[in-house]
Amino acid sequence: MSAINFAVIGYGGMGSYHVHTIMPKEQIHVKGTFDISKERQAVSEEKGHYVYTSYEEVLNDKEIEAVLIATPNDSHKELAIQAMRAGKHVICEKPVAMNTQEFDEILAVAKETGQTFMVHQNRRWDPDFLIIRELYKNKQIGDFFQIESRVQGANGIPGDWRHLKAHGGGMLLDWGVHLLDQLLFMIDSPVKTVAADFSYILGDEVDDGVAAFLTFENGEKVVMEVGTTNFIKLSRWYVKGTKGTAVIEDWDLSGKLVTPTYAPDVVAPTPIQAGVGLTKTMAPPSEEATKTLPLPKGLAEYPEFYQNFYDVIRNDAEPVVKNEEVYRVLKLIETIFEAGEKQQILTFE
Fold it and tell me: Which of 61, 96, 221, 288 is least surrounded by CB atoms within 10 angstroms?
């Protein structure tokens, strides 16, 4: 079958990354790009793309079957609705919209026009997440009861528009949307309660960091944290299961599992000096009591995003990233904002 003719709307960091790194040439043909920046237009033209002079020109191009929207968050809704009403399928960068009300409007037009609308929640394919998801499924460390998922850096909020509330800036919408999508995609239980704490250390009008505390109906507890003022980072994942503990330090996938051996007649731990006192409780277990194992391999049993999008359009396949899942993440983000503002533990419905 023929490749899908695409126009890329927004040829900045993410838009150009799609074009040059992740769009498979066998399934996707990028005919051209549109960006309001003259500099980025020039770069795109140098790369051999047709450069559209307006969004209307994109929408009037009958050869274009689909558009990728990689623009500031507050523009997603209008661009997506216009594209679908012009008969184009849409891939939209995350977060899909500023709030669930906007997303409802997008979904209504998708239903009305019959066009495919998918959100690029690409972190479902991250190797570190796939390892944790494999542990969750195979129960190598038992059932999870506490998950800590963090991304931390010390470079502040990136770019320009991400500093502005009107454009949907801030780190909950920038990175939190990824971590929450991973968690809700993995955990087979509804969220029960939400608490949150935001950081505004850098003086911007949007959050430069957020910690969300989630409990699920099955009893699992999650700490989700995004930080941009962390000069010493904590582990990317720290997971406690009923039969062991797992840690992944960073995206280089350094980490390990530690599980009990359940060996008979294990020697009791020897008390250690802890500050000015002794402790047996916090002493390391005896050598024969635990074993250290390598992390398992994590593989996605679902196709890559663009392969899936192609199959949805050409072969009527089911989307890997479903709009109802995206909606649930966006609703959870709204609840996290509310919980942080009220400094209360809120019930998630």
Answer: 288
**Could you tell me which residue, 267 or 322, shows the higher pLDDT?**
322
Q: Examine residue 222 and state whether it is found in any structural domain, yes or no.
A: yes
Residue 138 sits in a domain of what CATH number?
3.30.360.10
Residue 227 token pair: 């930080």
pLDDT grade, residue 62 (50/70/90)? Answer: very high
Closest CA to 86 of 56, 111, 106: 56
Q: Kindly write down the DSSP assignment for every residue of 35-101, as one continuous string.
A: -S-HHHHHHHHHTT-EE-SSHHHHHH-TT--EEEE-S-GGGHHHHHHHHHHTT-EEEEPSS-SSSHH
Q: Give me the pLDDT at residue 349, please.
A: 84
**């890559």: which residue's tokens?**
304
Write the DSSP symbol of residue 20: I
> Is 177 within the bounds of a domain?
yes
Confirm if 340 and 210 have CB atoms less than 8 A apart.
yes
Spatial separation of the C-alpha atoms in residues 218 and 193, rounded to whole Å: 12
Instruction: Kindly state whether residues 170 and 276 are assigned to the same domain.
Output: yes
pLDDT digits (tens, 9 = 90+) for 268-318: 888 999 999 999 999 999 889 999 999 999 999 999 999 999 999 999 999
Q: Which domain holds residue 22?
A: 4-120
In a domain, 311, yes or no: no
Q: Are residues 30 and 114 in the same domain?
A: yes
Helix ranges, the chain (H)? 13-17, 38-46, 55-60, 76-85, 100-113, 127-138, 171, 177-186, 305-315, 323-342
Looking at the DSSP bridge assignments, the partners of residue 215 are: 193, 221
Report helix, strand or coil for 6.
strand
CATH number of the domain enclosing 32: 3.40.50.720
DSSP bridge partners of 51 = 33
Angle at 185 between CA 184 and CA 188, to 5 degrees: 75
67 and 16 within one domain: yes
Q: Which of 209, 293, 286, 211 is nearest to 247 (CA)?
A: 293
Q: How far is the C-alpha of 100 from the C-alpha of 154, rounded, in Å? A: 31
The per-residue pLDDT for range 164-205, each reduced to its tens digit, is: 999 999 999 999 999 999 999 999 999 999 999 999 999 999
Asked if residue 174 belongs to a domain, the reply is: yes
